[in-house]
């Protein structure tokens, strides 16, 4: 799937949440690859399994009720599943970092921002307290915040500046992989653009690979190289950004683009996807999208589609593209 060296490979990953109300199949049979220096956009509605995928990579799936049922997550050729907590702690925050959705809940309200950045540096690098503070001030400068503000607390910053602090923490140890979980959701549009530009520039400077989790296809076009479209725990389409925007194949992906206004089209109304996301504890039989799909066939309710490579590097999970299916 990638010409670059694979930094991260996910093979047949399944993550379930086992609750009293039933089993939520949050991620089902996922296969993904990310090359060194690439940005992958993970796109889908709320509840599609995007954040669970990120938590699986970070080995932070809450157990109970969450459990990795099967599959493998290879990072730099080593399977993260099965590693001891001590081994994972050496990787998490050092080689793989994550930016969470809400910066206010990600930051400790009773520690200065400088202490919080320095804490990550001291944990993973052989530096003393003075050096860690100096490096935390330098990281603040990199994300556009004056270094002398390292003594301030999170409540003294605006939402956009708090998100910059979270980015500084995530990049403090120069990780190889950065996972950004909807990093601009709580910000207004102008601040969103600033934060995205900042992340793009820092990614180039640090030569970091990135997974951008979002439901905004505009963000994907702005920052991503590859895209994985998720629906009900499944990656239903995976390809590069240009191909996805010029030639989407899965009916769900086509539906997503149909529900976005286009200034070049003289349309009175958008074409939303009919229906709602299925109950995650009671998914439909066969293809999970078939009750909402305008191209559904009778076989779609009977069996799950296979991951089909329709052209080099373009994968679709849809029975319309499987040989011999009518």
Short overview:
The protein is α/β, with parallel strands linked by helices and 326 residues long.
Explain this structure:
With 326 residues, the chain is an alpha/beta fold. It has helices at 50-58, 85-91, 103-106, 113-124, 129-142, 159-171, 189-206, 217-223, 241-246, 251-258, and strands at 6-19, 22-35, 39-43, 66-75, 78-79, 96-99, 177-181, 209-214, 226-231, 234-240, 307-311, 314-317. The strands form two sheets. The chain has an eight-stranded mixed β-sheet, with helices on both faces. The radius of gyration is 21 Å and the shape is globular. The mean pLDDT is 88.
Total number of helices: 10
Helix content: 25-40%
Query: What is the radius of gyration?
Result: 21 Å
β-strand number: 12
Q: What is the strand content?
A: 25-35%
**Poorly predicted sequence stretches spanning 5 or more consecutive residues:** none
Shape: globular
Give the distance, in angstroms, between the N- and C-terminal Cα atoms.
28 Å
Secondary-structure content class:
alpha/beta
Mean pLDDT: 88
Order of strands in the sheet with most strands:
6-7-8-3-9-10-12-11
Major sheet, described briefly? 8 strands, mixed
Secondary-structure element order, N to C: EEEHEEHEHHHHEHEHEEHHEE
């Amino acid at each position: 799937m990638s010409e670059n060296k694979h930094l991260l490979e996910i093979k047949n990953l399944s993550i379930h949440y086992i609750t009293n109300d039933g089993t939520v199949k949050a991620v089902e049979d996922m296969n993904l690859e990310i090359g060194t220096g690439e940005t992958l956009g993970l796109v889908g509605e709320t509840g599609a399994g995007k954040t669970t995928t990120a938590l699986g990579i970070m080995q932070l799936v809450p157990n109970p009720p969450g459990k990795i049922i099967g599959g493998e997550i290879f990072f730099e050729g080593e399977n993260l599943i099965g590693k001891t907590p001590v081994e994972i702690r050496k990787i998490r925050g050092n080689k793989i970092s994550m930016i969470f959705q809400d910066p206010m809940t990600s930051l400790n309200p009773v520690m200065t921002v400088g202490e919080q950045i320095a804490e990550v540096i001291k944990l993973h690098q052989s530096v003393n307290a003075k050096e860690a503070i100096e490096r935390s001030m330098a990281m603040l400068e990199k994300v556009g915040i004056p270094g002398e503000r390292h003594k301030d607390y999170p409540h003294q910053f605006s939402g956009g500046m708090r998100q910059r602090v979270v980015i500084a923490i995530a990049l403090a140890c120069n990780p190889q992989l950065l996972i950004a979980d909807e990093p601009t959701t709580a910000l207004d549009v102008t601040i969103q653009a600033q934060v995205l530009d900042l992340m793009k520039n820092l990614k180039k400077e640090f030569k970091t690979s990135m997974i951008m989790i979002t439901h905004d296809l505009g963000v994907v076009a702005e920052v991503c190289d590859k895209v994985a479209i998720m629906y009900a725990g499944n990656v239903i389409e995976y390809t590069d950004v240009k191909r996805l925007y010029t030639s989407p194949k899965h009916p769900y992906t086509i539906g997503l683009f149909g529900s976005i206004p286009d200034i070049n089209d003289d349309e009175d109304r958008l074409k939303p996807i009919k229906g709602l996301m299925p109950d995650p504890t009671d998914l439909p039989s066969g293809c999970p999208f078939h009750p909402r799909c305008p191209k559904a066939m009778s076989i779609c309710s009977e069996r799950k589609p296979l991951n089909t490579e329709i052209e080099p590097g373009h994968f679709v999970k849809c029975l319309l593209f499987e040989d011999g299916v009518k």
